[in-house]
Amino acid sequence: MMKQRLLAAAVSALSLAPIYAKAQELIQPIKPPAQINIGMVDLGKKLYFDPRLSKSGFISCNSCHNLSMGGSDNLPTSIGDHWHQGPINAPTVLNSSLNVAQFWDGRAADLKAQAGGPIANPGEMGFTHTLAVGVLQSIPAYVREFKQVFGTDTINIDGVTTAIAEFEKTLVTPNSRFDQWLLGKKDAINAQELAGYTLFKESGCIACHNGPAVGGASFQKMGVVEAYKSASKAEGRSAVTGKDADRFNFKVPTLRNVELTYPYFHDGAANTLPEAVETMGRIQLGKKFNADENAKIVAFLKTLTGDQPSFTLPILPPDSDKTPRPTPFSQ
User: Fold this and answer.
1) Per-residue pLDDT reduced to its tens digit, 160-175
2) Cβ atoms within 10 A of the Cβ of 102, count?
3) Domain containing 67 — which CATH number?
């Protein structure tokens, strides 16, 4: 009887071994958002898509973080007010709630702090917080909705950014094929993709690209083994800390949905995934991947595309007669 029990325990342990192994992976599955205020999310969704938060009445959060395009704009750098060329590539908003901080240099501690930046940036939405709030305050439907959500008739920028951040928390992308594999579905990825993941780990990519977001949890120097040459003037983390040691340190980008968020790097200089993999291997790891190795890693990266956010587009409330009209062509 004792032998039978030991044998049964051994068989059980062997059958669970793959599950235990996956549980110890440095990448974890994306989870759906928890503890979301539905009313605030609905308000934040309207604000996210509302171009009236910009001076031109044309640019919204979705302009640079397009939810139909992987939460980015697929441009090297974004286009701002008066056709202003942005200084840096727009990171994806998808899974951004999992980041250690926001923006490439981490100057915003969280989504709420980030949401207010572009509105008042003259090179982005070109407005001021005061003017943006004034527009919203002149729209009766917004006043009513803010009253329902925040319990006050007075709209302020704190409420605006809080609502936008609450909506952005819902923009997670679970159920990628790689997540399915992590959760035990052995046929969710093929042999080439699995070989790519193995190479991804063995080469050292996973040292920075780990966790649920497969990145976003640390700041690292761009060009560890070999200097990265770029026309961009972005200095990275040092612009925030003032420390020369942080020069060219950027937030590690998430690799979730990476096949959708081209071009790559803070300067948008890599147009394709194979190009990005080649560059990162060379300058960060001192490795020169051959064509077969590169293809395997790219195949793995494409398994990280999850379910994209799906919702009904908001119908924005109409202006009142007192709502200031946008001035897209004024200086």
Assistant:
1) 999 999 999 999 999 9
2) 25
3) 1.10.760.10
